[in-house]
Amino acid sequence: MIGKYLRLTAGSQQAIRDRNASAWLLPEDDRRFDHGLLERMRRYRDEDEVDIAIVGCGAGGAVLAQRLAHAGWSVVCLEAGPFWDPDTHWVSDEGGSHHLYWTEPRVISGSDPVPLGSNNSGRGVGGSTVHFAGYAPRFHPSDFRTRSLDGVGADWPLDYRELRPYFERIEEELPVAGQFWPWGDPHPYPHAPHPVGGNGEVFLRGAAALGIPARVGPVAITNGRFGNRPHCVYRGFCLQGCKVNAKASTLITHVPDALAHGAEIRTEAMVTAVETDPEGRRATGVRYLRNGREHRQRARMVAVAGYAIETPRLLLNSANRRFPQGLCNDHDLVGRYVMVQGAPQTSGRFAEEVRAYKAPPPEVTTEEFYETDPARPYRRGFAVQNVAPLPITWAEHIAAQGHWGHDLRRYLQDYVHWATLGALCELLPQADNRVTLAAERDRYGLPVAEFSYSQCDNDRAVIKAARTVMEDILCAAGATEVLTIGRYAHLVGGCRMGADPQSGVVDADLRSFAIPNLLVTDGSVLPTQGSANPALTIMALVDRAAQRLISRTGRSWSVA
Amino acid sequence: MARTVPSGDSGHRFPDFDALDQARAWDPVTSAVVFDRLALQPDLRFFGPAEEAVASALFDLLLAQEGPPEQPRVPVLQMVDSRLAEGQTDGWHYQDMPEDGEAWRRSLHALDQDARERHGTCFAELTADRQRALVQRVQDLSGERWHDLPADRVWSLWTRYACTAFYAHPWAWNEIGFPGPAYPRGYLRLGVGVRERWEHPDRAPEAP
Questions:
Q1: How confident is the model at residue A558 (pLDDT cuts 50, 70, 90)?
Q2: With a cut of 0.90, is the ipTM above it?
């Protein structure tokens, strides 16, 4: 056991370099991306039948592209957004980062509609990992069996142990920094925890006063220089895209290595349909728009990785004679069971200056309330993290409390005195929380997604409990006033995996039941969402699916 | 150059603090984006004259930029107009609301209509107190409909756009003690009660 932990920090340099090749493919000079990689990128023609066409280059798509390119597959990854250059495309500024989000038109409805387009979306190479906080907790073993254990949600078609080696490998590839993790399946992290800013310090103080265990991490930010990735400078703009290259995004952790192994990442390419043979038995490629013209990329296999809204939308928009209700939708599951985490946010006022804008916005966590507690009136639970909003986000927090005019200005002038905590509440999967096609069309002439969302009683009870815990922690730390607002975070589900075609769109290997050479490789496959940020789990599932795919075809890329 | 703070009750907590003093430590791409906000804003392209009159008064109220006319004003009206003209929205809209641009037009007309019905003149002609009362009424209608729009969603639309514009502006950072961009220098001094030398202490720390 001890040997295994030491290996995390004292392994051979060459092994680390081989595993994290992307970090050494970044430039050694003052540029943040090697444009030579793009100039030398292999480029396929539409009529070439490539081994796989991947739709979307975010957490799932980029990992799949890198794995398969490594194994010698011919890979084209089609991405609707641009190929980012952190130096020239990103700014250390909150208001100037709107272009990092997916802002195509969408309709939201239901009794508790979920705003989209901002932090729960992404575009361009790296997808939402470009602007995610880098928070990378694992799901707990219990997350895979909530139906059996708690009578709610759904059991996954695989269990935690089957995913553990992939969690470990992705944690090393990002790499993740944090304290030894005591919750779920206890485990260490490859990098030591980062120093804590004022907001995290307040959280630790309040939690200690109440006897609630809290830990620093786990965040996918290298602690110290890593390959050609510089160390973090604690500037606090993680959510605006890391100009430093310290925070992981697949743009710097997997894409460089994918390109070096012959993958093509075709940007500004909006996929409009997955095509099949006339009988609908096999996927034959994708139809996409680029420079205003329609193209078709032929492929022996297709993987859709457009996330919880765009993946179901694409499958629904790909309806054909064999699948009149949408591709892979024989059992009316495509677009259903979309989930968001309830993310109430509590700010507390302190006499001291907290200056929450410095250091990574989430740094400290407690998962003490993660699982079902029989003494509480709800099933499943929540995690608490600090969130550290920048001025615009904090103004929205204050405005959401009803303050405006002089009141609003007065609260904002007090900005440096406030610390903020955010919860991630496990809201339950419900069939009617779903993506459908609206009558409205986008600029390509395609029906846009409508996302309907309504909470159930258990959801409301969990959110209420999280709010009480956050207010208690801040008061115990010395807050003189607390303000809580309701909001949501993350998006998963919509193409859930299941044990059979009646319970899932895809199987545990992320292959669709209906079309064997069509995969879904993103967060939409999650049957439940836990109270953890989903990126690490999405990447681990895709890593596992890639491994299984490669071993079925006799090419190897083994788990260390 | 003397520091600038926005119109209204401003500037007593960080009296000498000017985020722009550190602009030489910012990367050029970020600098360009921030300094753009200080440049002359484009002429209005989205709001028509009647909408401009209501929106201008509404933004002054929502953000309390109510100082005398000679005081500098964060050009919120122009910043919002640019966003709407360029379609720089978040993309989504509620099923029971039109898209953002149309929602802005309709809600501004509705506010003007309230002014005419209650006071016989347009919104912009009213005293600040009367304007404030009409705006407050929309907030108080939360959960109900107002001119066939859900009042709470109109309220959220107004405050969201207003806050996003105002707190993107370096003059607003000056009054709240926020240093703005921090790349490539970053921060070394983290933690409660700890400051870099370019971060100024709060000189009038009173809870709101």
A1: very low
A2: yes
